[in-house]
């Protein structure tokens, strides 16, 4: 950790600069407020371009970066931060978790990889965890139905919300896909 300690769930001492990068404005605002209340000096960015510029101007001690941003990939931000500050503790947030991107994020210097929606407590724990400390397994892991639904949503977004193309890539009937998309997400 960068010389900081946690006391009663708050950060104390050392460099507490934190860059949060996410293109979901309401989530970004909520997370920034929550991290400020835990002792961080928060800067925010809504794009890769803005985040890279801020990282090059003043590399933060901590960063929370969304994987997919409107103008590119959050991994570019991780690389830019690492270039300026090798000891920065960076975590990746994503709604589209997969092993390949998690491995790439860690190789670029991210210390953790969290799936959205992640709450402020999860983010704080990931940022302040010591090097040898392991994350606790989730108390309520996603159900198989939820994992399937998340995968379908990811492919649907990758296909720019084109039902026919999504159905073709998933090898399922278009009407079946339409019924799945019309339902709420399973728990």
TrEMBL record:
Residue numbers of 4-aspartylphosphate PTMs: 66
An example GO BP is: phosphorelay signal transduction system
* Stored CDD domains: REC_RegA-like
Q: Does the keyword Transcription regulation apply?
A: yes
Give every Response regulatory domain span: 17-131
GO molecular function terms attached to this record: DNA binding
Q: Which keywords does the record carry?
A: DNA-binding, Phosphoprotein, Transcription, Transcription regulation, Two-component regulatory system
Q: Which NCBIfam families match?
A: ActR_PrrA_rreg (NF033791)
Known PANTHER family for this protein? PROTEIN PILG, STRESS RESPONSE REGULATOR PROTEIN 1
Function of the molecule: Member of the two-component regulatory system ActS/ActR acting in acid tolerance. These data implicate that a two-component sensor may be involved in pH sensing and/or response.
Recorded protein name is Acid tolerance regulatory protein ActR
